[in-house]
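User: Could you check the structure of this?
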Amino acid sequence: MTVIRLTKEFSFEAAHALDGYDGPCREIHGHSYRLFVTVKGCPAAGEGDPKCGMVMDFGVLKRIVNEEIAHFDHSLVLRQTPCNASLRAMLAERFGNIVTVDYQPTCENMLGDFARRISRRLPEGVELHSLRLHETATSFAEWFAEDNR
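Assistant: Sure, the predicted structure tokens are below.
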């Protein structure tokens, strides 16, 4: 059996603020994120299988990632804390896409969240191998399944 890795790239725009951070990222600011999703598995071998020769249909991977991650596009991502509850409520009155998370919305923590969301949706026999999230053109974080077992 040959194990193959497939990678699909996604992009989204989002703003965030790092609550309590001691640097400039405590201010609301945005990024043009690039997300690389790599899955692995063995290509289907059954001649009668419409997915013969595929680990996974790229369209299915696209659908899964879009359903799990699309709400981050053009959003403001904020950590849910008691001290920013009034700010979040005020912003939600004016803006429609405030994403509230239970973690500091760093690139690193977003990857952990994305890994959990995507992994649980993959078809049988397909595993999430890695994620790479570029926050800027020159800065990214990576998540690998082998490091998280």
